[in-house]
Specification:
elongated, 44% strand, two-stranded antiparallel sheet, 14% helix, Thiol Ester Dehydrase, Chain A, five-stranded antiparallel sheet, mainly beta
Length: 141
């Protein structure tokens, strides 16, 4: 996948997204999200990826879900205060009770030259749960 971007309809997006990827969230980190070096805490990024990753499984499960695994998490570049982060997700697998998604995070930075770079990618698994917190079947439509 290329980290280059194209301008389409006034929106910046990676020029080549994985099949089925959808923009599920955008956020700009603030100074309170940074460490002593001025970079954004990895844990803050992980929390945002978990939120973004849950969007598609929640729709598919039509109810409560819980994160059961972070299967892979790669930090590719540092994230800085003022970067606009875009989270793209695609469903990788739907099981009996679980849904696995792939999330890619791109940062728009340097407004003068507008660079878009992939900063993080991850695979997470969520499980559909009932009102007591027990796994339940994912609805099949």
């Amino acid at each position: 996948m290329s980290d280059e971007s194209t301008r389409d309809g006034g929106k910046m997006a990676p020029s080549s997204l994985p099949d089925g990827a959808q923009l599920v969230m955008r956020v700009m980190p603030l100074p309170a999200d940074s460490n002593a070096n001025g970079d954004i805490f990895g844990g803050w990024i992980m929390a945002q990826v978990d939120l973004a990753g849950a969007v598609l499984p929640a729709r598919i499960a039509k109810g409560r879900i819980a994160t059961v695994a972070v299967n892979q998490f790669l930090f590719k570049q540092a994230v800085s205060i003022g970067d606009l982060l875009s989270f793209y997700a695609r469903v990788v697998r739907v099981g009996t009770t679980s849904i696995t998604v792939h999330v890619e995070v791109y940062a728009e930075r340097n407004p003068a030259e507008l660079q878009v770079v992939k900063v993080t990618e991850a695979n997470l698994t969520y499980v559909a749960i009932d009102h007591t917190g027990r796994p339940r079947p994912v609805p099949r439509d």
